[in-house]
Amino acid sequence: MTQLILEQALNGLQFGLMLFLLAAGLTLVFGIMDMINLAHGSLYMVGAYLAAAAAAASGSFVVGVLAAVAGTAAVGALLEVTVLRRLYARDHLAQVLATFALILIANEAVRWVWGDQPVLLNAPEALAGPVEVAGFSYPAYRLLIIAVGVAVALLLYVVVAKTRVGMWVRAGASNREMTEALGVNVRRLFTLVFAAGAGLCALAGALLGPLLAVQVGMGESILILAFVVIVIGGIGSIRGALVGSLLVGVVDTLGRALLPWLLRGFLPAETASTLGPALAAILIYLLMAAILFWKPAGLFPARG
Amino acid sequence: MRLTALAASLLLATSAHVAHAADKVKVGFLSTLSGPGAGLGVDIRDGFNLAVKQLNGKLGNLPAEVLIADDQQKPDVAKAEAEKFLKKEKVDFMTGIVFSNLMLAVGPQVFDSKTFFISANAGPSQLAGEQCSPYFFNVAWQNDNLHEAMGKHVQDKGFRNVVIVTPNYPGGKDAVTGFKRYYQGKAEEIYTKLGQLDYAAELAQIRALKPDALFFFLPGGMGINFVKQFVGAGLSKDIQLFAPGFSADEDVIKAVGAPMLGMFNSSHWAHDFDNAENKRFVAAFEKEYGRLPSLYASQGYDAALLIDAAVRDVKGKLDDKAALQKALEAKRFKSVRGDFRFNSNHYPVQNYVLRVIGKDAQGRVTNKTMGTIFANHADAYVSQCKMK
């Protein structure tokens, strides 16, 4: 039982850190420019496809990941300069509509280039097997994801908390007008933030590609969770995104494994195995509702 | 002159009452052609098209028009596309659907319009029993069958502590019922979401349950991810994997590769079946598409052959539904799987074999037939079917 909980905690950590890569970019964009970008998940999809293409062409997974991050960051910057920039002054409804259209365009574009069927992206051979952790085997590849996730979270923390650019970002998130008045070029800062967010998306997409499937529309399901994360964590806060991601990741994973287990104690096995996953699926939203009840602005809001 | 005009009008008048030969056969092919389940639909489509091509573009000596639509594995999309086929295109036959939940969603509208649906895959228990229809023919199997065969094999091999993993949808429930019909030991059931791709939580549960064997039914991309992650988690050392042919077929092997070596699975067909029709089919399929056919492809191929034989039988008189039904029931073609006949519920009575994944003479990882598990096996629902 302890082993099950330990293994699930690691799984939750892995899932949570991947959510964090998505939520970090999303929350900065939302926080600084007050812009709702539904197409954030599309950048995740583009990243995964670029990774698969580059890995297939070069024969190296690492090259695939790096190419995906660089390529998607460029796509993100281009998207910001050409389309999204025009939307900042509009209200949220216009932003939602426009970026929803971007999702459809991105899906069709990817379908056009790579076809309808999922594209194959395999983990590097050396990491395809298990390693021993605390007395049981755990997939080496998931440990790599955890390591990369922790490293990126630390790096982001240092950049946002300790550098000048980070200071501008934080200032922009808590009060955009005042920051502009102080002479910060928020326009350029934002292109930068957007490109960085796209790069993080691509990293998540490339790393999750071998575990999930690189397919059209893969960004939509995970985007909903990313939005849940930033709502829980507090909009515009990197720390909130991290805590929110880990909460959602752990609750979802533990719920899926432990709920059927607990229900089996007092329900027939058949009912328990049907009811458990169903309950686990709504657990995240119960968590969100509970947090918003006590803290309507999320756990660590950037703006008061 | 006047006489021919009279003859012509007479002919026209009588033709309103008597079925006459159609000038072409229209088939509505509706299947999952995008997303993680796409590999299955694509194989059925390729198998179907190959047969039509070998018949020189004809079905039953009539020019064939095969309309293709993607159901995206969504019931609402499937219903809308079926509506188009039935109302706008007025197709003579429908085929293609992979997933049972979609088949159950589309079934009523197809049968109400008196259009024959030749299922090349989905075989839900509902349509084999109480909801059976004269307009539904399944050229593959009833959902439970392959799982029943595996349940029998696992039982015979002496495993008594098994975990079953399957998606929570009608096909998944049929799988569990089928497996447990012949397996009597302890069976812990784990249900996943249909289309789920990350199995971390389930694998942790399996590790904690410590079974000696695992039976999983996860079609398409789901199975590909599951096997990869199962091996990645190091579970393959202690737990023997068993699957129905769906989850251990050429599409899955192509994506997973060597980790599948030694896995046992059950099927009604294999590419190494030793009969003339099958040899011709496998060679032609490989030549046309550059890959080994899966069982889905063989079912698509047989579906086309069934339509061909039946249309030939009624001499192209597609309006005579009663005659067409009789012709379909008669099954006047040689299947690539060898022998099978239709039961009174229009589901096959046939053999089920054991396959193991190994390396062939060319060093390719692929399925190899080991022997028969069931001979002339019928489904368990046929007695509930009152065919009207």
Automatic annotation (TrEMBL), chain A:
Q: Keyword Heme, does the record have it?
A: no
Q: Which GO terms describe its molecular function?
A: transmembrane transporter activity
Compartment list = Cell membrane
> Which sequence ranges are marked TM in the entry?
12-36, 48-81, 93-114, 140-160, 189-208, 214-235, 242-263, 275-294
Q: Which keywords appear in this protein's UniProt record, sorted alphabetically?
A: Amino-acid transport, Cell membrane, Membrane, Transmembrane, Transmembrane helix, Transport
Extract the Pfam families matched here: BPD_transp_2 (PF02653)
What is this entry's stated membrane topology? Multi-pass membrane protein
One of the GO biological process terms: amino acid transport
The Gene Ontology CC terms held by the record are: plasma membrane
Family indicated by similarity: Belongs to the binding-protein-dependent transport system permease family. LivHM subfamily.
List, alphabetically, the PANTHER family matched: ABC TRANSPORTER ATP-BINDING PROTEIN (PTHR11795:SF442), BRANCHED-CHAIN AMINO ACID TRANSPORT SYSTEM PERMEASE PROTEIN LIVH (PTHR11795)
Protein name per its UniProtKB record: Branched-chain amino acid ABC transporter permease
From TrEMBL, chain B:
Keywords linked to the UniProt accession:
Signal
Signal peptide location? 1-21
Its domain of life reads Bacteria
Ranges of residues in domain Leucine-binding protein: 24-357
Chain segments annotated as coiled-coil in the UniProt record: none
Q: Does the keyword Transport apply?
A: no
PANTHER family linked = LEUCINE-SPECIFIC-BINDING PROTEIN, PERIPLASMIC BINDING PROTEIN OF ABC TRANSPORTER FOR NATURAL AMINO ACIDS
Question: What family does the Swiss-Prot or TrEMBL record give for this protein?
Answer: Belongs to the leucine-binding protein family.
Q: Would you tell me the protein name for this molecule? A: ABC transporter substrate-binding protein
Provide the species name. Azospira restricta
